[in-house]
Recover the amino acids of this structure.
């Protein structure tokens, strides 16, 4: 039988599902930045809306831990609570990138402590472009370090690399400035809320970065001071976003070395600029060489192979903003990791017909996003 009332389990209509973006904001705020539980929550529930709907379950408690479970069930912590905040972000041209956004970096989806929400100023399309190289080092560099960062950064940017760094004093800024000088894209990863620039002296540099590249942070606008831990958390994102990490100068005990540790954890190759044995600023980089944890880089072309760059026989062409990826391309890329996979394996993982899969792989290869190895096995570039 059909008609009003039949099949209805309640006198009241079901509560409408909250906006997906607001669910992501709720979940990210509930877990907190850099949470080691982020990947586990996604494994269990698949997305933020599903997590919200199961927030009072034992499965949710086990996935997020007791402190986050308590925060998730506070009366004033609901997706609707973030509606006005999202409107203010839009008014300030701060793009909110949740985990399921097409412009969210695929590179972050492969680390267990990924940020569930990113905040971005500038053009987020660069976040999924191939050829990203992290360039980090001392905040108090020598003239040698500054010159090396300028020469390497300029040469790499002109040949298609995207410099990724932390927009901090010293060698981070030197890498960004080298790319900006060549009118090439560069990505700044902040360790402070997205509506702040630290140091304040880099505000003009940030504006130039946003004109051609972008700046991202996992810390929302209008939030309080993050403290030193914010910069250490930021370092994992620089390492994850980069296909390779270049350390120009670093002392043995420094924040830069934490970025190296993250790069090693993610299986990213590490390169260092050899320095004077008498310079404390090169003690860390020289030790990485001595221990076999890094390779030496002396000129930009030393990195062309690992970044998939061909080099410039003719004058470099200034890169224009990339085209957005299709949902099918993102689906295939999400199935490809640092370990090469064959067509059959990718077909099973993606659920795509073989013809569509092969066509998509060809597009990704031509775009420089994947490399085809012998035996028709594909790996991220």
């Amino acid at each position: 039988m059909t008609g009003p009332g039949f099949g209805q389990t309640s006198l009241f209509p079901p509560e409408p599902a909250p906006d997906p973006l607001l669910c992501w904001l709720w979940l990210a705020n509930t877990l907190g930045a850099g949470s080691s539980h982020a990947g586990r929550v996604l494994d269990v529930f698949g997305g933020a809306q599903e997590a919200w709907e199961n927030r009072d379950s034992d499965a949710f408690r086990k996935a997020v831990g007791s402190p986050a479970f308590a925060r998730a069930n506070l009366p004033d912590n609901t997706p609707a609570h973030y509606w006005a905040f999202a409107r203010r972000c839009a008014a300030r041209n701060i793009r909110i990138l949740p985990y399921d956004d097409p412009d969210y970096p695929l590179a972050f989806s492969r680390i267990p402590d990924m940020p569930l929400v990113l905040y971005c100023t500038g053009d987020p399309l660069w976040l999924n472009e191939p050829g990203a190289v992290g360039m980090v080092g001392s905040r108090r560099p020598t003239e040698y370090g500054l010159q090396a960062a300028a020469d390497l950064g300029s040469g790499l940017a002109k040949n298609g690399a995207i410099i990724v760094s932390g927009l901090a004093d010293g060698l981070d800024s030197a890498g960004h400035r080298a790319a900006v000088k060549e009118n090439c894209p560069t990505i700044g990863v902040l360790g402070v809320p997205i509506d702040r620039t630290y140091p304040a002296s880099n505000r003009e540099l940030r504006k130039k970065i946003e004109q051609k590249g972008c700046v991202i942070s996992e810390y929302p606008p209008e939030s309080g001071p993050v403290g030193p831990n914010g910069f250490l958390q930021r370092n994992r994102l620089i390492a994850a976003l980069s296909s390779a990490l270049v350390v120009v100068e670093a002392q043995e005990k420094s924040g830069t070395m934490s970025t190296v540790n993250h790069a090693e954890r993610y299986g990213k190759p590490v390169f260092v600029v050899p320095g004077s044995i008498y310079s404390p600023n090169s003690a860390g980089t020289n030790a990485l060489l001595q221990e076999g944890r890094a390779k030496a880089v002396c000129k930009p072309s030393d990195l062309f192979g690992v970044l998939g760059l061909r080099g410039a026989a003719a004058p470099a062409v200034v890169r224009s903003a990339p085209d957005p990826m299709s949902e099918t391309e993102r689906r295939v890329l999400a199935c490809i990791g640092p370990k090469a996979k064959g067509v059959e394996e990718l077909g099973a993982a993606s659920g795509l017909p073989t013809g569509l899969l092969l066509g998509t792989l060809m597009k990704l290869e031509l775009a420089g996003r994947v490399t085809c190895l012998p035996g028709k096995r594909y790996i991220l570039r």
Summary: The two ends are 58 Å apart (CA to CA). The chain has three domains: 20-92, 125-307, 327-380. The CA atoms of residues 156 and 300 lie 6 Å apart. Residues 1-10, 313-317 have pLDDT under 50 and may be disordered.
